[in-house]
User: Fold this.
Amino acid sequence: MSPEKVLVLSCGALAKEVLDVVARNRIEHIKVEFLPASLHNNPSLIPDAVEERLSRGDYDRALVGYGDCGTAGSLDAVLEKFGVERLPGSHCYEFFTTSDVFATIHEDDPRTFYLTDFLVRHFERLVWVGLGLDRHPELMEEYFRNYERVVYLSQFPSAETLTDARRCADKLKLRFEHRHVGLGALEATIVALPSLTVAKAGV
Amino acid sequence: MEEDLDLSALSDDDLVEQMQADLYDGLADEILAGTEILLSRGWSAGRVLEDALMAGMQIVGVDFRNGILFVPEVLLAANAMKAGMVVLRPLLAETGAARTGKVVIGTVKGDIHDIGKNLAGMMLEGAGFEVIDIGINTDAEAYLAALDEHRPDILGMSALLTTTMPYMKVVIDEMVDRGIRDDYIVLVGGAPLDKEFGDAVGADAFCSDAATASETATRLVMERAGVA
Assistant:
């Protein structure tokens, strides 16, 4: 009997993390695909992009590697149509951190701008240029006047990423904090897909 | 090199058209200059606001909704409109023109995002509303105190986070408990909201963007007054 075809369709911003989970857990019989990470800045485009890929139907089961991600339930409406699950929570900050811990961090001070490894790596393109601050630094006040701190929710921290994250906070003129959260619900959800790992499949 | 356009050499119609284009491009200095030129030609502040600035922002709103413009461009356009409003606001107050209505607006508890709220406030002001902005991270007590103090026609609540938007129901439920819910029109808005959410929390309407907020507010106030 041929193995079940499982598709993990994920945000490109999670590429490094998803591939790490797949490799470390020796997950086989799984096809991993990514949508452009730039959709992060244009969430209204995410549901159509996901629907277009899912409608090809070349899988038995699928997991979508997005949270709600600012789609206001539109992504969930698409997923319901296809009977497909997504990662838990509103956004990557939440599923990396897990919901309860994220709620605690956010309630501690809602005036928080969050960074992940991906956002640290691509801060210039996605945050600085994406918000138009390279061309219009005068918009800084509009965007960040209510923020007090940057919290870097790290996945694979290193001295270099910590330095870079601190530099991002400096650029935004915000206080810096670091919380190591790892992969949280991202890893748990992928690993929990039944019959996927070599061990579970008994191969 | 492109020569600077002499705005004062344009006819009224061409100047208004040019101002709408300048607003779209976020050119605050040009909007300020155009506003002053139209006023010097005898235009009323209300006419400049409506024909040049609000009409221009409507175009910006439509293109934002259609994914042609993004947040940075909308913010620049809003800043350009603000430049014109600095001149127009005192003139509008002087003329004592009847207000469309009064709005108390704020971002809900736990949420610090105010770009959408500020845009909505500006468009509401442009539509003739007196806008009392009570800021961010607003709890039910603060909303209710503002309603009591200012007696507005409309309460506007904004949220950007799925974790904070349920707080709108807390505020509306408190209004129901105090028997004042029907004294006000309640509008809700914010990126993660939709019409179903607005209905579920008991709002009168969900507004998908700032331009829609001003249109909806005007329509509902007129309906309530029996004008429409």
Notes: The beta strands of chain B are 101-107, 129-133, 154-158, 185-189, 205-207. The interface with chain A takes residues 26, 67, 70-73, 75-76, 79, 110-115, 136-137, 161-164, 191-194 of chain B (CB under 8 Å). The CA atoms of residues 56 and 94 of chain B lie 24 Å apart.
